[in-house]
Amino acid sequence: MRDVYFLVLPQTMALDLTGPAEVLALSGAFRLHYIGPREEAMTSVGLTVGHIAPLPADLPDDSLLLIPGVADSRHQLDSAPAREAQLWLQANRQHVLSRRWSLVCVCSGALLAGRAGLLDGYRCTTHHDVLERLRQQAPAALVKDNRIYVEDRGIFTSAGITAGIDLALYLVSKYVDARQAMAVAREMVVFFRRGGDDPQLSPWLRYRNHLHPAVHRAQDILAHEPEAEWQLEDLARQVFMSSRHLTRLFREHLGLSVREYHEQLKLAVAQQRLQQGMGIEKSALAAGFSSSRQLRRAQLRWNS
Questions:
Q1: SMART domains from the xrefs (predicted)?
Q2: 124 annotated active-site
């Protein structure tokens, strides 16, 4: 399991903290820790977080350090606890830059990281209300507008509030796998969104931003055995509807046919096998294509 340390300050935005924490906890792949300059901290909504561990001398290798935003960041980041946290970040700057730790900033959490010099030379973003302040306080940072989240060499930053949930889902996809991220998103009933210039989501996630349960069931069946030679009639029977109705629902909610969706899953499997060092013929057969020629034709269809 990977360790995640939440840096909790007074007036931390509650959803900046609990949103990503819920995502990571539901994935079952992360250990959550809460650290800060004070043992207790009142959040933006008046709830107090207790049993906060002191700022440690070090964190385990491959840890994620997550900095949530704070309410009224213009004043709160000048408070004594925030200054202590900033000094601690500066003292541990090399752990982030050497990628011993990964840094995750939600909303105005990027301001604290920027002040500590952790974003210098890195692409990053933050809440639209504080973008200009981030540019002023971290002039060497490469601040990007209109981004949900940005990843750059082990440093992750996001826009405000719910964008922290989007970023946390991306972290599950990156450090666990896309299907686990999909399962967490469905449990939380949230959509997947991209982070501007970040790579496209895999087909395991890309077409899951809808709420139709029967379509999700059909997608689950296909995703469980993408290499199988599924017939539309058999798939429709398993979700208790006609082939025609299932086809219509796929078009309505995904914007493509059942066959096209299945083919994208098979392409993803083939790509995984190729990355694992399989030859193209074996990769094609493992993904359910009849030959490498059929695989190449599918690749051309989707890459042209």
A1: HTH_ARAC (SM00342)
A2: no
Rounded to two decimals, the pTM is: 0.76
* Average pLDDT value over all residues in the chain: 91
Q: Rounded CA gap, 113 and 124, in Å?
A: 11
Q: Say which amino acid occupies 199.
A: P
Q: What are residue 70's phi and psi, to 5 degrees?
A: -125, 150
Residue 270 CB neighbours (<10 A)? 26
Q: Count the Cβ atoms, other than its own, within 10 Å of residue 39.
A: 11
- Average pLDDT of span 61-83: 93
Separation of alpha carbons 12 and 259, rounded Å: 47
Beta strands 101-106 and 155-158 are parallel
Measured CA distances, 23 to 127, 135, 155, 162, 201 (Å): 20, 30, 19, 11, 18
Q: What's the pLDDT tens digit per position in 250-294?
A: 999 999 999 999 999 999 899 888 988 899 999 999 999 999 999
Return the pLDDT at 185.
86
Coil/strand/helix, residue 2: strand
Q: Which domains does the chain have, with CATH numbers?
A: 2-188 (3.40.50.880), 210-303 (1.10.10.60)
Q: Give the pLDDT confidence score for residue 198 in this predicted structure.
A: 47
How high is the pLDDT of residue 28? 96
Select which of 97, 105, 107, 168 is catalytic. 107
Long-range CB contacts (within 8 A, 24+) of 235-240 = 239/214, 240/214
DSSP label at 198? Answer: S
